[in-house]
Every structure is written in C-alpha cells, then in structure tokens.
Amino acid sequence: NIVFTVHTRLKQTIPNIFGSNPTDSILNVLDSEISKGLLYINQKEKEINPLRDRLKQETPYSYSSYDLYKRIFDEYKSYQFDSAHVYALKEQHAAYKLANDSLLVMANCDLIFCYTSTGLFKEACDVVDPTRQSLDNVSPNIRGNSIFIAYGCTLI
Fold this sequence. Notes:
The protein is mostly helical. The chain has eight helices and no strands. Helix 4 (about 65-75) packs antiparallel against helix 5, helix 6 (about 100-115) packs parallel to helix 8 (about 140-155) and helix 7 (about 120-135) runs antiparallel to helix 8 (about 140-155). The protein is globular and about 60 Å long.
C-alpha cells in the first residue's frame, strides 16, 4: 500500500541525509512517491478487477458472493472509502439474505470500520446496536472482535 511504500522509501533515504538538509531529502522522497500515485492506483485496481469479474459469475447473495464482497471490501478499505462502503453494504445485505448472524456481525464490523475511519461516528454507533443483538448466535472469536469494535465506538 502507499503508506508502506512511502515509509520504506523514507527509511532508505534517512541514512543518506546526513550532510544535507534532512527535511528537503524527506520531502523529495515524499514528492516522488506522490507523483507515482497513478501507478499505485493502477496496481491496486489490477488486484481488485479479477475479484469483481469473479463476482459477476456468482449467484447474488450466496456464500461465495459474500466472500467476494468481503475480499473486495478488504482491498478497498485502506484505499477508497466510497467503494469500501459499497462493498460493506453488499456484505451486510448478503448476510441478511443468507440469515447468517456470524456473517452479519462481520459485515457490520466492516461498516463500523468504514464509518469510524472517516469520522462518521454517529453512523458507526447506529450500526453497533443491531450488531449487539446478533451476538448470541456467533462464535466467541467473532463475538470478541465485534465487542472490541463496538466498545471503541462507544468511547467516542
């Protein structure tokens, strides 16, 4: 991802900055990485497009389509909020259609992540209450993760 790449380039530059202005060197590396933004976008889209193509072949609201919604969400979540949000909603809708509380809780956690990552705390808290109601029928692992996320939302 972009942050990792920038961080790696900065680490490579830092040993070479002694004897020159460190701020200028770091800014030059940052400018260089930012100028490669389109390259990073294309690289990310190359990873996402095959998943979207596979999704077109799946039965809507099946377990396999849910899995693809989740994988596409995971690709978008640190990259493009609008698309991540769309796929989190598709996850949620598929989980409802499948009547699977575990999938519903995980989809709700993805929605909460979307909302809190972008400062939409009220919207995140609106998802917390229905998530709490579904916790009785899910595995302890999923329950623990969702409680952690919901607790973080209530601290806000």
